[in-house]
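Treating backbone geometry as a discrete language has practical consequences that deserve illustration. Part of our work consisted of pairing the sequence of a single chain with a tokenised description of its backbone. What the numbers capture is local backbone geometry rather than side-chain detail. For completeness, the protein is quoted in full, as a sequence line and a line of structure tokens:
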Amino acid sequence: MKPGPTTEISAGGVVLRRTPRGMEVLVAEQRDWNTGDRNLRLPKGHLEPGESLEDAALREVLEEVGVVARIVAALTPIEYAFWHEAEARHVPKVVHFFLMEHHEGEAHAADGEMERPTWCALDVAARSLTFESERGVVLEAVTLLGSGHPLGS
């Protein structure tokens, strides 16, 4: 008997830093477990037992791309389903992203889940991220910054 459609919950960050060229967002490559394709993604991951969404998001950013960040705002959660090959089923998922400001650390592939972390311009990320839902989260961050959010000034 196959397990029921338990929804997975994850948390992650749209990590920004201010540079002389403007705001940049931290992205990295991740290999798809089913196809082996490389995807350009935002850092995110599962919650540990008893962990808050905010703590999980900060931990995942540190674990996956090696930087310490600070949360400045919650963004709209995204929902989707992914194919779990081993269980031969679609798994519903909700990801809670947070707008974050880079605090310290050089971006690097910290735990091996993500590769080649890099900073890129917000508009480039909004076009280049593999998944439309993550591109939308970056666009939401751009809108928030354009509305006078302190991080944008």
